[in-house]
Amino acid sequence: MNRHSAFADAVAALDEGDFELLRRAVDERCCREKHGFGTLAEAADLYRTDPACPSCRAASPFRDGRTAGGVQRWRCRACGARFTSLTGTVLEGSKSDMATWCRFIGLMRFNVPLDAMAEELGITHQTAWEWRHRVMAAVDGYQDRIVLRDLVWIDETYVNDTDLHLGYGVARKRGLSRQKVCIAVAIDVHKNPVAVVCGRGKPSSARVLGALGGHIAEGSLVVHDRERAHGALIRESGCAEEAHRADVNDPVYLERMAMVNNLCSWLKRYLWRFTGMSMSNLQSYLNWFVYLFRVKQDSERWPETARVVRHLLLTEARFRSST
After folding, report:
1. Residue 187 located in a structural domain
2. Higher per-residue confidence, 7 vs 181
3. Which domain CATH number covers 265?
4. pLDDT tens across 98-135, in order?
5. N or C: which end of the chain has fewer CB within 10 A?
6. Which residues contact 132 (CB under 8 A, 6 or more apart)?
7. Does 249 fall in a domain?
8. Is the sign of the CA dihedral 21, 26, 29, 30 positive or negative?
9. What backbone phi and psi angles, to 5 degrees, belong to 96?
10. DSSP labels for 147-177?
11. What tens digit of pLDDT does each residue of 39-79 get?
12. Are 187 and 261 in contact (CB under 8 A)?
């Protein structure tokens, strides 16, 4: 037998305004119990304890009260500029509560379509789009510091150009052509991936070197499919190589290239969820893919949504919609 809730009648008697206040209070408490913070102010106090001055970059500002929303204000000792703990982050100026942001990040971790996000959170499609790109702006440049070590696999994968002014309604050419965008991918034995846009069509040595150069540690063993464009990258990185001719009927090739082939497959399935994406945003989507890949590896040690929120607060980034 279902137990009657002592609060059911009281909740049913609330008017629309009071019910909305109650819902927000419940969401805030649930967010605090699940993630360790219930408001933007609490998250900022937890992760952004001593921000540098956004004007002159001086450290160690002194506290200068709080905003009406409880966010810590600061004043720079060097130039006197006033700012808050959220200044310079993608959460600056947000009018939505932390619980809504955490739910949005949770949906974004599973790459949920914008329409579904908007309906679930009660926001517009445009707002969902802007929030997605705010989060992606915070991970732009994330791959710059990734260095693959020891045993490394490299390859390329291709996606059709869906930009409307570059091929929409035009017959697609078979095979590799400049209608396809090349993505250089790499992954090491420690399961650290890299994915970088590498121009259009079949890549040149210079393009592969530009995409993956600096991402492979000297002395690593690079496994690849005998693509001639890989040679310059391997030489410049000071690496040894293990090359296999691409042949789907060769069990040795399939076994030795399985790691990077699987990465290419996962990456394509990920990108297929964003049909109609502008190619100008492709690198941002690849950055988010790599960031999530690494976040999921550490999910047992660090809850995923809380880790993303921490990253948003510790990274200075901005996104301004063109609409």
Report:
1. yes
2. 181
3. 3.30.420
4. 999 999 999 999 989 899 999 999 999 999 999 999 99
5. N
6. 108, 114, 117
7. yes
8. negative
9. -90, 155
10. -B-SEEEEEEEEEE---TTTTTTSPPPSSS-
11. 999 999 999 888 888 888 888 888 988 988 889 999 998 89
12. no
**What is d(CA 250, CA 151) in angstroms, rounded to the nearest whole number?**
21
| Number of separate domains in the chain | 1
228-232's contacts with Cβ under 8 Å and 24+ in sequence apart are 229/202, 229/203, 229/204, 229/205, 230/154, 230/205, 231/205, 232/205, 232/206, 232/208
**Model-level pTM?**
0.86
CA distances in angstroms from 223 to 32, 217, 235, 258, listed in the order given: 46, 14, 13, 11
The parent domain of residue 238 ranges over: 143-277
End-to-end CA distance of the chain: 54
257, 265 Cβ separation under 8 angstroms: no
- What's the Rg (C-alpha) of the chain? 24
Tens-place pLDDT, residues 189-240: 999 999 999 988 888 899 999 999 889 999 999 999 888 889 899 999 999 9
Report which of 138, 177, 143 is spatially closest to residue 317, judged by C-alpha positions: 138
In angstroms, the CA 112 to CA 154 distance is: 29
Which of helix, strand or coil describes residue 134? helix
* 217 three-class SS: coil
**What is the number of alpha carbons within 13 Å of residue 93 lying toward its C-beta?**
9
Q: Give the other-Cβ count within 10 Å of 34's Cβ.
A: 15
Shortest CA distance to 237 belongs to which of 224, 256, 252?
224
Q: Does residue 152 have a pLDDT over 80?
A: yes
How far, in whole angstroms, is CA 248 from its chain's centroid?
A: 33
More confident residue, 246 or 260: 260
Classify residue 233: in a domain, yes or no: yes
Q: What angle do CA 246, 249, 250 make, to 5 degrees?
A: 65
